[in-house]
Amino acid sequence: MSFVAAAAFQWVNPKAWIMALGAITTYLPQQAGLPAVCILAVMLAVVNAPCVGAWAAFGVGLRRVLTAPSQLRAFNVTMAALLVLSLSPTLTQGTGRPSSVLVLHRGHQSPDSDIPVADVTPPAPPGRAPAPAAPVRPPSAPR
Questions:
Q1: Domain ranges in the chain?
Q2: Residue 37 burial by Cβ neighbours in a 10 Å radius (0-12, 13-18, 19+)
Q3: DSSP-derived secondary structure for 84-119
Q4: What is the pTM of this model?
Q5: Tens digits of residue pLDDT in 44-69
């Protein structure tokens, strides 16, 4: 694939669209204009360039090491197993086993903020009733 073809491919790359939309909706205010979007794009490019360079260098190094088909197969199987293992917290969520769900303690609030933090708890294991939600104090309530 040529450089131009690879650059054109990014317009239909779903990972690139998800990353771009996620970054815009997360880091820019709702009324942000084109200058703010351009600044964000430059910041993402500055962060992305060394990451892509490291990824390419790693690939070149692996090409030199993985010369035999058996080595390549062992590497691919290992990487696939690690990928599935990395999904296990998501796949086991709600089964009573540890998961990667962020749990905020009830009543936790930043001391310098009037914004209450919602109670986020993992789903109850099967056969158990969920814990009652803690009331969220309105911002106007006295401390």
A1: 3-91
A2: middle
A3: HHHHHHHHTTTTTS------PPTT---TT--SPPPP
A4: 0.47
A5: 999 989 999 999 999 999 998 899 99
